[in-house]
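Amino acid chain
________________
===
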Amino acid sequence: MRVVGRIPHPSITITIFEYNEKYTLKMEAGPMEQSYKITIDQIGNLGNLRKLVDEPFLKECLAHFNAMFLSWKATVERHEGV
């Protein structure tokens, strides 16, 4: 797997990987990570993938990160002392 691009964002690290005719869009915020695997024949090229990473999509990703953090925090609190 090799890094083929990055997309700048103030609060998310966005990296694009390519491997076996697929792109992996990896987003990281703090200790949380989301990834999306997209076949190259599905979107054509790297430029098209970059276009898909628009503000509405990123807003949803931030909401997912928040939900992931709250889920993790809740389970840690339920199992304090473990």
